[in-house]
Design brief:
mainly alpha; two-stranded antiparallel sheet; about 70% helix; globular
Amino acid sequence: MKKKILHNIEWGILVCTILLIAIGLLALFSSTQNSNYEEFTKQIMWLGISIPIIIVVVLIDYNFLAKLSPIIYGVSLLLLVAVLFTQPINGATSWFSIGPFTLQPSEFAKIAIVLFLASIMVKLQKRGRDEINRFWKLAIIFSIVAVPVLLIIKQPDYGTALAFLSALIFMLFVAGIRKRYIFIAILLVIIIVPVAYFFILPDHAKTRIDVYLNPDLDPRGAGYNIIQSKLAIGAGQAFGMGLLKGNQTQLGYLYPKTTDFIFAVIGEELGFVAAGAVILLYVVLITKTVQVAKTAKNDLGSYITIGIAGIFFFHMIENIGMTMGLLPITGIPLPFVSYGGSSLLTNLILIAILLNVSGRRQKALFVE
């Protein structure tokens, strides 16, 4: 059985992940040389911690993981509530501090929401795929996502909350939601966005949107980071200024260069070719994830993998988009590349689940 799983795994997903991690470590090595490589060292430690966990997750059947999902979901909600009572870091109560490390429960909640939501959707469709379009069943699905999303907004962390919604949209689309609901959702977004901007969003969130629309509005304040990021990417040209030689990166003008703006570091020091390669790797990773969703042996596997695709898609688009000034800054990390132990571990577990589902695809039944 294990041979069949190994034979059937979509190894391209793992290759893309390894290459992205390697590029990320290279960028972290360069961007932390003035701080004794502290974050670079911690990232390697988190990578070492992640490897045995990945192996375990790949070997455990994802159907069993789905059975455990109510417990995982419940624990995640408790952690999201508990973290609200911690000391704020950079104005947000998003992390538990454990010695020199910090843990971000909203990252691990992504695993819980994808597994639990996929499990519930399968149960709601027992009598047929179109059952998902019943109003009360859609209400259950939205409620499952709304609880953690509201808790994450409370921190506040709007970027991560949007990643949950991206996973939900991908999963509902694959589940066969009717077009009329899609049109209603688009109409609601058109109505809600201006209302949220004028009456709901806090001042700092409004400022980010204003700066996105016009970075020169506050070039020394709220617009400073995005202006420096665009300068860094532009300065890299085709092949970059060279590792350890980026002006914005090494002179401290780019901030935070190890997390939100790591793509700008790559663009400045390694150039357009390397930055383009990073985008291409994400495109291949997400494309292969969608292919796994198409060939999964059951709906549960399809919903899990497409939900993961939604999370990776949003993170890629939002992080790279904000560093180039195409989207508002939300503090979303670039998966496998940005510094962050919770983010790295969570994303690698999601990759392990993808490998898990791909190894148990329908075509495995025909392997000798």
